Amino acid sequence: MASLEDLGVSAFINILSAFAFLLLFAVMRIQPINDRIYFPKWYMSGGRKSPRRGSGGHGVGRFVNLNLWTYLTFLNWMPGALRMSQAEIIQHAGLDSAVYLRIYILGLKIFVPMTILALAFLIPVNVSGGTLFNLRKEIVSSDIDKLSISNVSPGSQRFWVHLLMEYLFTAWTCYILYKEYDNVAFMRLHFLASQHRRVDQFTVVVRNVPHVAGHSISESVEQFFQRNHPDHYLGHQAVFNANKFAKLVRRRERLQNWLDYNLLKFERHPDKRPTRKKGFLGLWGERVDSIDYYREKISELDKKIASEHQRVLKDPKAIMPVAFVTFDSRWGAAVCAQTQQSRNPTQWLTDWAPEPRDVYWRNLAIPFVSLSIRRLIISISLFALVFFYMIPIAFVQSLANLEGLEKVAPFLRRVIEIKVIKSFLQGFLPGLALKIFLYILPTVLMIMSKVEGYLSISSLERRAAAKYYYFMLVNVFLGSIVTGTAFEQLYYFLHQSPTQIPRTIGVSIPMKATFFMTYIMVDGWAGIASEILRVKPLVIYHLKNMFLVKTEKDREKAMDPGSIDLPETLPTLQLYFLLGLVYAVVTPLLLPFILVFFAFAFLVYRHQIINVYNQEYESAGAFWPLFHGRIIASLLISQLLLLGLLSTKKAANSTPLLTILPVLTIWFHKYCKSRFEPAFRKYPLEEAMEKDMMERASEPNLNLKAYLADAYLHPIFHSIEDVETGEVRVDKGQSYMTSPSRSEISSSPQYVYHYEIEP
């Protein structure tokens, strides 16, 4: 069991690591060569065109900041991160980013008063208990445990203080959760109402379109919606399977990129035209003019693209049983999306279409039966994955409990007892090792979520976050307590009567607080500091810039920062809420570690959202109901664990009163669910009608059909370019054909989307 000295070593290492990361960041961010790494959002939004230069734009000043004054004000990023208001953040980064930041504010609101009360009242009560001073020496404990509930004598009247505090903490948490849920729901409704026009408010995705003999899927969709929604149906986009078409489009983009590179090269040196060899990768063969070579290749490829387009449209097997259906009003779309369309509940399944950036195109055409089978298989696989990881988790926990392990493996004692090694193993290595084990999990869980068949990226991220939360709950939290207790008390379990085992477990549960303190310091202190340094993107960008970047488009791709990693960050935050709520009454000394994390992480992620991350979609805070539910689950877990702990402490008078809390907490959750969740799941018809009437009054001549025509085209390319054939255009990732029928087509790695409108 780690002592205060071991915890001090861990705190010193992590504080030193965090300070080193922050110091490096402060220096690296002001170097012109790194400007696109630490401020990519401003480049992507057009707010910045060129890197900062410390002393002129020539020579060394292009790469290194030569202005010494900026080195003396290297901490000005901190007030800069706090300067932007919430309304400005919503306008700058979107509502999802603003709601994400409110999670850290929620943590501070909940845990600051709890920390003050716990340190002021619970620690004195625990210290005065004196139980651990009188236990047999076989029970492993430390000075930190003497500050916890384990130090209170069984049957003591002091447990009334813990019971009272649990009631106060639950009431305060529920009050803050209610206020925050109300606030976020208002922010969401206000955000949606303030949007001038969103294409997803007029669009419904329909799946499992039944095949009708003699009719194509597209004809069936049009007939069905003209018959059942005659007053508001506007048009639809059918989905075609066109893998070959997508490959040709991506190949054309690569050739176009090489052509742009050679044109720039010729522009810089007009006296010498660039050349290349015609063989494989330009390694052998006849040497030819590079510009003419790539123009010829692109011209040949354009003909193949046009031919493949016609083949796909004429192939009845290429069309998929799914479509994007558009309506002439928000009211019409809301009625369709929120009602059952067919007497057969497995056909004509409708739901709100995600916004175009949020669509996960590969999952659009998965059949209903296949979805059910996929989700069953993934549920079984998730269960196996969670318990497979118990093996490395158990080993990690054994490192944090060396005294207990020595009793089982005494031959390790000579190495373990070296003071430096012992402090390092107990104070730093367990949290670091656990972090490494968890590093590969988000990728695996995201793949599993994609297999389940959800239609939007935001849904995939929420499902992956839920899986990650279950994993962390079972392995990191419950697994750490159970496994750690078994190793720690193994010797005593084998040498005591069975009637004493429940008491031993009751005493041991709060003893795991030391492990979680080290984990919070590694992940929540040093880990957050490394987040702002962006070591991995820094290295990757400079490597790409040296070897792969040929054009400005390549440079934009190389500096793309991506968005906040919600599948990983949300479950981590939920774990910290769980730890704070569970140990607030059991071991109050853990709460200051939680507070430092929330305050520090809020500052860092505010800076990252303002300057770095670029959200690839906008769900208007749709993840909040799930996050709220996780905190309620944490409250219930804390109450049940305290109930079990007090039952082992012979607190017969106070324990029964604790059984009321879970019932009240569940009632509170159901009330919040019915009160606020509809704002995140449905679009009120009243508001839809009001928005439609206001829009018609302000824009009576609006051509909504033209506005919605190419809204759901898949983004692959990033420039508009007319090619010699005049038939194919490449428009910001959309590859589509122009024809007299005004058909438009787009490609993805799996499908092509064809939009049909009336002449």
Automatic annotation (TrEMBL):
Its main location: membrane. Signal peptide: none annotated. The chain crosses the membrane at residues 12-30, 103-123, 159-178, 376-395, 428-447, 468-487, 575-605, 626-646. This is CSC1-like protein At1g32090. Belongs to the CSC1 (TC 1.A.17) family. The keyword Chaperone does not apply. One of its GO terms (molecular function) is calcium-activated cation channel activity. Residues 374-646 form the CSC1/OSCA1-like 7TM region domain.
